[in-house]
């Protein structure tokens, strides 16, 4: 990855949509992307959280973001298609799509897993990402360097007892990434990958590991150079890969 350094310096003029942009990793990547020059479409469930991120970006005189409140548990295909048309009309293209929003749900054995929890987790973590990708592909195809980045987990690469629907949803996410990457491999400039952020100091991690001291974990902000790189033009050689953030961070130059 010899061009990592220069590529991470700028997302200037790029239009990037981030789901779950109001909190955790998505919030940190949204702020970092704006600082690298991107116009960020902040998509998330809680409007107040998105407004706070908007205010922080505007206060730094960065490119004005767009707020797009959307509940991925209930959003319809019509809403995804409307979003796609709006982006196309306003910007004429989409350069990056980070599928970051997810729900953990309750952990527990398959035998006792609540069916309604299974349905909701699959809806938010898998179906929403599929339908949104489908609806935004026309705009992504208009970019000279479109990027679609899915968010995985270590339990999306090796099954683990009691991680239930969350784990299954992350396996499905990897499957969606591979199918889409294979479809687009020789037909477009879009690059499709998945990233496992690993243990990170967020609400989701605290819910999964309530006894853990969060101060022992990396912050979302410490991960952002990898996301910036993967959403930028310099990562064109990465396609169809299940990436690991720890490995990628060790390849970043110390100045970043
Ligand atoms: N943190 C970790 O240790 C870790 C490890 C491996 C993988 N990951 C993955 O990394 C990604 C980010 O996780 P995180 O730790 O930053 O989680 P987080 O702090 O819980 O943030 C999740 C974000 O997703 C949004 N979201 C949840 N349900 C939604 C819905 N129905 N519609 C729209 N937005 C919704 C949340 O919005 P609200 O705040 O409004 O609810 C929030 O902004 C996830 O895909 C997660 O699976 C995290």
Search tags:
256 residues; alpha/beta; 9 helices; disordered N terminus
Structural class: alpha/beta
What's the assembly state of these chains? single chain
Shape: globular
Mean pLDDT across all residues, rounded? Answer: 94
| Distance between the ends | 14 Å
What would your notes on this structure say?
By secondary structure, the protein is of the alpha/beta class. The protein has one domain: 3-Layer(aba) Sandwich (Rossmann fold). The chain is about 45% helix and about 15% strand. It contains 9 helices and 7 strands. The chain has helices at about 5, 25-35, 45-60, 75-90, 115-140, 165-185, 205-210, 225-230, 245-250, and strands at about 15-20, 40-45, 65-70, 95-100, 145-150, 190-195, 240-245. A 7-stranded parallel sheet has the order 3-2-1-4-5-6-7, sandwiched between helices. Helix 3 (about 45-60) links the parallel strand 2 and strand 3 (about 65-70). The radius of gyration is 17 Å and the shape is globular. It starts with a helix and ends in a 6-residue tail after the last helix. The model is unreliable at about 1-10 (pLDDT under 50). The structure holds NADP nicotinamide-adenine-dinucleotide phosphate (NAP). NADP nicotinamide-adenine-dinucleotide phosphate binds near residues 20, 22, 102, 124 and 198.
């Amino acid at each position: 990855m010899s061009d990592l350094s220069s590529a991470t310096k700028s997302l200037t003029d790029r239009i990037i949509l981030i789901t779950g942009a109001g909190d955790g990793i998505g919030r940190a990547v949204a702020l970092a992307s704006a600082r690298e020059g991107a116009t960020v479409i902040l998509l998330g469930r809680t409007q107040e959280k998105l407004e706070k991120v908007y205010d922080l970006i505007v206060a730094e005189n960065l490119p004005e973001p767009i707020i797009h409140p959307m509940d991925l548990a209930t959003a319809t295909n019509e809403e995804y298609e409307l979003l796609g048309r709006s982006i196309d009309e306003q910007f004429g293209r989409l350069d990056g799509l980070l599928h970051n929003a997810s729900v953990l749900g309750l952990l527990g054995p398959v035998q006792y897993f609540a069916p309604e929890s299974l349905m909701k987790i699959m809806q938010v973590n898998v179906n929403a990402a599929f339908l949104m990708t489908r609806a935004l592909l026309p705009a992504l195809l208009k970019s000279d360097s479109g990027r679609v980045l899915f968010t995985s987990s270590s339990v999306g690469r090796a099954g683990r007892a009691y991680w239930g629907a969350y784990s299954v949803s992350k396996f499905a996410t990897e499957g969606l990434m591979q199918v889409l990457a294979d479809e687009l491999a020789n037909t477009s400039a879009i690059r499709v990958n998945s990233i496992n952020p690993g243990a990170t100091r967020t609400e989701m991690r605290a819910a999964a590991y309530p006894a853990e001291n969060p101060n022992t974990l990396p912050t979302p902000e410490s991960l952002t150079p990898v996301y910036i790189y993967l959403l930028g033009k310099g990562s064109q050689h990465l396609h169809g890969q299940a990436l690991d953030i720890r490995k990628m961070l060790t390849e970043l130059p110390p100045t970043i």
